[in-house]
Input
Amino acid sequence: MSNIFNAKTGTAASEDLPVQNSDSHWVNPTIKNPYGGGPNTGITLPPYYRPTPSLKNNNVYFPGMEELGDDEMRISFIGSTPIPVTRAQAGTCIMVELGNGKRFFFDFGSGCMRNIIAMSVPLTMVNDIFFTHLHVDHYADLPYLYAFAPWMGRWKPLRVHGPSGRTSRDGIKQMIEGMKMMTHWHTDSFNIMPIGDGYEVEVNEFDFRDDNGICYQQDGVTIRHWRRSHAKDGASAYRLDWNGLSFVYTGDGRPDELTVQLSQKVDVFVSEVQPDTSNLQSLKFGVPTVLATTTIDSAHSLHYAVGYMFKQIQPRLAMVTHTSYDEELVPEIVAGIRTHWNGLFQFGAPDVVVVNVTKDAIWTRKAALPESGNLRQPSAREAIELFDLSPLKTEIVFPNTKHTVLDIQEPFIRDQEIDPKKYYPPDVYREPNPIFPANFKIDMKTMIGEKIAQAVKSKFEGIKDNIQGLKDKLQGE
Output
């Protein structure tokens, strides 16, 4: 057995034993693992911090390659910053996926769409977006989704949820009407394509004062809301409960007793956080210290306060997001949180932190996003929901267009178009037709049958080639 030298006592101690002081007490006896501890457990990690059964890779989440367990929840931090938006951090957006196939989004900040696409989520399946409040960093990418998803085949209305406000001008309904006005030129021009009801929006504006009120209840999922103190009336937090699992997202706001009360027994509690380092922020960004402190003191939660709330709530996993992930300040944020909270803690930043949750386990990873991520078509299950397919209804009937280019464009400008025969190679020429055909439809049964027939044909051709190769080999011998 080897010995190590204890500089404090001037004696040698066995390396198999913990270092003790002269009074034979443990050094830092107050530092303990709150979950029971034991060799190799760390001082903050619980026994349930381990991979869930559905994981294909314990270290990295590869989008589109891992099916969620039937009794599992997956929380993905699609975007994680208020400002500035960077290559590492899009505006705040959290995606929650459930084992029953449901998917929800909480806030929709600037740049989140690029990560949603890279996370292999079909554009047409992005729906049921819950807004905590109407600061632009929480909804900036909504017009982009609204404008393009119907062209991709989401011919049903977009569904959004959010709080009312002090007046009718301050609620989410008014924001959506403003978005429709802002995007009119876009939507009117895209209505030469099959859009259906895609540019309609189902707005669920709930009373922001109805604390703990239910704003969504379908398919075993219940989502509740309550007020938060964020500079102005009309900011909300959310709690999602499903299958004995739960998730809370505070949105922005000051530390408050209502959030503590309504977040009890939650599995994953996610808060925004702003470190109390305004003097440094002043040096970095060139703004007066008082500008930062006033912003925090009227609208946000300090790292000390977040740690205090964690301690009062006692979640299975405590997390922070909606923060500029400056690496030099990360230790300070952790230290501030640890003044009160000694349990399991993780950052929901920078982007695409992924959390898998079951009743027995919680595990966190980062997603590996492809540089060339592109649009994914809906899965068979998603297509059934998107187009209302069934064994008795296998046709996808495209909506007729609202109008054509002939209705919204003067003949003069169309007459200036260059004759296509001047630039088309002759063997690939086709006659341009800017009018989408009326009553267009696709029979999925026929398409699937053709795919199966082609697959069978390819299989038999492969077998035939193998047999011929074997014959040739035998003849050669």
In short: Confidence is low (pLDDT under 50) at residues 1-20.
